[in-house]
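Work Package 3 (structural annotation) set out to generate three-dimensional models for the target panel prioritized at the project kickoff. During this period the team completed the workflow that converts sequence records into discrete structure tokens, so that structures can be stored uniformly alongside our sequence database. As a representative example, we reproduce one entry of 363 residues exactly as it appears in the project archive.
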Amino acid sequence: MKRSSIALLLMLGAAPAFAQQPVPDIRFDANAEFLKLPADLYLGEVGGVAVNSKGHVFVFSRGNATGPAFGAAAAQLLEFDKDGKFIREIGRNLYAFSYAHTVRIGPDDNIWTVDKGSDMVVRFNPEGRVSMVFGRKKEASDEAVPWTRVTPPRPHVDGNFRQPTDVTWDTQGNIFISDGYINSRVAKYDKNGDWVKSWGEKGTRPGEFDTPHSIAADARGNIYVADRGNRRIQVFDPDGKFLREMKVTDVPVPPDAHPAIGNRPTAETAATQLPGAPWALCITPGSNQVLYASDAYPGRLYKMTLDGKVLGVLGKAGKQPKQFGWIHEIACPSENELYVAEVLNWRVQKLTLHPDARQTASR
């Protein structure tokens, strides 16, 4: 089995004393043609992918675009069976569908979409009907334009989002929404949809965020936030108390690595694309949970324990099967079965992992 090595950093004298041991490359297979689309249906940039209790796969794509080239409405929710056969489109021309960001399966197999363009989060029941809405789209009768980043940041408004990114639930059914590109906070609702609180603001200290881009919960109800711009994952209890942060910045980048698009990132040009800057998070079900996270460069998936130890890595940036073009969301119905939504490659890949015993959660 191939193994990532810290030999290069050691030769350069740059390896910190606390750098973890060499990280294994996890063997895996990839099916880049798992989804069977009808002849007249196409995916755009795939923002989200989720799997329900029946194994059905839900894809939130920036397809079905209408309007001008810039500012077009681009969000389409599609359902496939466990074999990848197309079943239906959900919410066609929905008022909240503007710019697809993520899709999640919540309690009772409800389907949740997070739309960055409309600033709305929508819950569908398993039949595909809208059953709850969060946030509000800017009125078309006004001068509706995208939110801009200003200094100092705008004051937070309870119940209103500014480019939200993701949603998760704790063991009590409370709802947590990462909000997002503009507000840099986490919003909490109870299971009935009533506003509880929010925490966080723009910054670098514990409990502050720079683009909280993905969010997940473990079996204890702890909340994991992909603090992408700060290159870390922050962990909180369900009340928003900071517990710890995790980083994968000490996992060496292969010397021949290249970005999926653009120049190699630097802290000055593209902090959110630096190695280890987490774009997507997924925590597996069951009693022995692991966390998967992705970055844009070198374009890998990281398998981690819930306390932050990296168990292995897989993949790299590229256009071929087993390569990735900006993984934007991960679905992980089991430890060794993953689905990844790719923005640049306009696809979902189904991954089957083949780790050895040292890379399992129950070691």
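The radius of gyration is 19 Å.
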